Backbone:
């Protein structure tokens, strides 16, 4: 009986122990499951927080980027999409390449030769005989007539004329302080600053030569030829170009990128830039094909454009579209035929916002009138 009781007792304890173990094991399993679910949920929660944080960050970046688009910026604020100076090379600190003179070019390019003598690029500096009214006014001035007979050359056009003579040094011209304001339908012509006229031996070299003469030496500011020779726009042309015209900048066969065209035209037609290396209003030793904006510093802001006359604004806004915003394939050559001096092509283009720089937005047949005088150039 003791043995039976003992076996019963042992068996009973074993049964109770098994039930308790099962219950404890089940409770432990449920606890583990609960803990596992909590840990999984915690991981999912953390992942969700990270995703939400990322989405919020991306939204903020997108908002800032959207705010920087031209149509969403406040007046005067710009954020350049492209660095205008980031491509190409320049000739700063390098020798000016030898070039074939325009006279040699015209021996073959006779279609251009027939009109070149009256082309404005050829007349950036010209004989004083081309301004007879201005010379007559100088000879009739009590203060300026003593210097009138010394005048050899003239620059400028229908808005202002400046007078020049040789300094006696190679590639150097003196600029007369007295100016001529040509007549218009509303007023007669008049002399400006004629009270104490004098010759300035340095102003043309430091401010004008880069755009009114060819191949200016950056050290002496002496030029190789008056006016703009063919190389100014077409570059250092390989003699093999007679068989391959793609070797010539601005040729139809070459198809230069808008930024290259902008650099070639902008070297003279951007009248508000400043050379980083020389401090002059024209670039240092620019050669067609160079990146003008590696040396020429330009203010591209809307605030600056708002201060310009309509002609200078038109030039700068179009070039900004190409080299800063990278959004325009329309270049100066899209509208202007340089050799024929014709603007006929621009009449076939679709009207855009840039047209309103010169044309009335309500009536494109009406051109805006206004002063196009440049304080930098003095004409």
Residues:
């Amino acid at each position: 009986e003791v043995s039976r009781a003992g076996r019963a007792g042992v068996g009973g304890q074993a049964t109770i122990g098994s039930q308790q173990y099962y219950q404890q094991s089940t409770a432990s399993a449920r606890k583990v499951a609960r803990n596992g679910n909590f840990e999984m949920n915690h991981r999912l929660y953390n992942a969700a927080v990270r995703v939400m944080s990322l989405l919020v960050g991306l939204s903020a970046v997108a908002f800032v980027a959207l705010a920087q688009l031209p149509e969403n910026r406040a007046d005067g604020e710009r954020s350049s999409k492209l660095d205008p100076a980031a491509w190409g090379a320049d000739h700063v600190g390098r020798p000016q390449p030898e070039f074939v003179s325009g006279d040699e070019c015209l021996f073959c390019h006779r279609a251009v030769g027939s009109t070149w003598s009256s082309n404005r690029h050829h007349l950036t500096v010209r004989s004083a005989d081309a301004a007879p009214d201005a010379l007559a006014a100088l000879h009739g001035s009590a203060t300026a007539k003593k210097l009138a007979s010394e005048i050899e050359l003239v620059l400028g056009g229908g808005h202002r004329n400046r007078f020049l003579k040789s300094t006696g040094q190679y590639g150097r011209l003196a600029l007369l302080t007295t100016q001529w304001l040509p007549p218009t339908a509303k007023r007669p012509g008049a002399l400006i600053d004629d009270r104490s006229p004098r010759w300035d031996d340095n102003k043309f070299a430091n401010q004008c030569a880069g755009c009114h003469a060819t191949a200016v030496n950056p050290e002496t500011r002496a030029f190789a030829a008056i006016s703009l020779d063919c190389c100014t726009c077409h570059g250092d042309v390989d003699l093999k170009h007679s068989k391959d015209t793609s070797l010539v900048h601005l040729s139809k066969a070459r198809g230069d990128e808008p930024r290259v065209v902008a650099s070639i035209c902008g070297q003279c037609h951007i009248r508000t830039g400043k050379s980083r290396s020389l401090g002059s209003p024209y670039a240092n030793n620019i050669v067609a094909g160079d990146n003008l904006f590696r040396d020429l510093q330009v203010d591209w802001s809307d605030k600056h454009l708002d201060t310009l006359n309509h002609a200078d604004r038109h030039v700068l806004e179009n070039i900004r579209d190409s080299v800063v915003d990278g959004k325009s394939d329309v270049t100066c050559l899209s509208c202007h035929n340089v050799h024929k001096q014709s603007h006929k092509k621009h009449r076939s283009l679709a009207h855009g916002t840039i047209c309103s720089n010169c044309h009335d937005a309500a009536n494109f047949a009406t051109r805006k009138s206004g002063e196009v005088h440049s304080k930098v150039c003095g004409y």
